[in-house]
Amino acid sequence: MSSADTSQAGGDRRKRSDARRNAQTLLDAAAAVFARAGVDAPVRDIAAEAGVGMGTVYRHFPTRPDLVVAVFRHQVDALAATPTGASGEDAETPYDVLRSWVARFTDFLVTKHGLAEALHSDQAGFESLHAEFVDRLVPVLGQLLQASVDAGQIRADVRPLDLMIAIGNLCIGAGTFPGYRARHMVDVLLAGLAHGAPASTDGDEPRARTGS
Amino acid sequence: MSSADTSQAGGDRRKRSDARRNAQTLLDAAAAVFARAGVDAPVRDIAAEAGVGMGTVYRHFPTRPDLVVAVFRHQVDALAATPTGASGEDAETPYDVLRSWVARFTDFLVTKHGLAEALHSDQAGFESLHAEFVDRLVPVLGQLLQASVDAGQIRADVRPLDLMIAIGNLCIGAGTFPGYRARHMVDVLLAGLAHGAPASTDGDEPRARTGS
DNA sequence: CGAATATACGGAGCATCGCTCCGCTTGGCA
DNA sequence: TGCCAAGCGGAGCGATGCTCCGTATATTCG
């Protein structure tokens, strides 16, 4: 599912050698172009960088987002592969683990110029890119969240999807707006996560605490 | 400044009558189309809705964002015109005032389909749209923030621009992603604002509190 | 009231996208 | 070596933001 079964660069042994090579070349070229011009870079540029034609790009990656997904697959995998205890430290509290995972996620989004932006643009079927992130990362975030809730360290009224999208959103413009510090605002959000539950802020119930 | 001196619909008495009328027609048509198809709607559609040609649109509003700015000008004005005490209630604490202003800002962004998204897309000179919002609203937010800081109700390490962009970002996808509740996450962010300062969360200093 | 002229209009057209289509090239195999 | 399917390249399509300029008309002046 999620549209990115796109032959994964050099994995497929049944393809012709030039096809396999081109897929990898394309991946490298895309990574280079994305780093240089952001993930919004025209597909034509990527084709040119790789020294192939438009057709070749689209044969390997049927749609632009598929290419983006493929380029960042490794890093999403890394993020998805840390259910608990990033570095094996079991002494950390669940909330600490949550914090460090979120920090890594934030770094990832902030580092890749325009990735966070692309995650949300409704244009050109970028929803598959979004779906990829949601499918892979929401479960992990769900575990981290639940553990912190169970430990009584955070409020229980924030769902994994809410938090994931919120973090992704906060990272938008990180490299674009000079004065905006995305990481800092993610920190503030996490602080709010930790304190909303025990005492509701100011004695003033937020509003519309819909659903669980 | 900010590129939106664009004749303001019907204000200019020196223009030809048909020009004045068309400007207003365009504004109405744009509002209708934005409501129906989001602020990303093609300029051609707006021209068609208004029953005028492309040239007319661009003569009145030199660039797409200028049109968007003009359409939402009234509401931005309303937001900008409330330095303190939304409804004259002086008994509220500064933090309450901040909260209610932010709630109105959030409602505004969430209501207009795609406005929050458009605020951040780097494409097609949308930075003028962003500039408009920043110029008008950051000062107000600055006052609200400072008052709350002075009252000791919120942490002092969040600047107006940070908060404004953060809120705008959190509203992205409000109407697009079914499960995402933007308002709720804005609440969480505000909760973090209130609690980060006094006691740093868990005894564990967040991380990299880069330059106060 | 009727002509003159600046002002405004309309929409064809340009450049840039994402993506498709199809004739040509080339790798892999007998 | 020769065959043919897998693969390739890039012209081309439709959409979009924005420009340009010949045409229509509101306004003014005799």
UniProtKB/TrEMBL annotation, chains A, B:
Region (Disordered): 1-21
Keyword annotations: DNA-binding, Transcription, Transcription regulation
Record carries keyword Transcription: yes
Species the sequence originates in: Actinoallomurus liliacearum
Lineage: Bacteria, Bacillati, Actinomycetota, Actinomycetes, Streptosporangiales
UniProt DNA-binding region: 42-61
Gene3D superfamilies: Tetracycline Repressor, domain 2
Domain HTH tetR-type intervals: 20-79
Annotated protein name in UniProt: TetR/AcrR family transcriptional regulator
Bilayer-spanning residue ranges: none
Pfam families tied to this protein: TetR_C_43, TetR_N
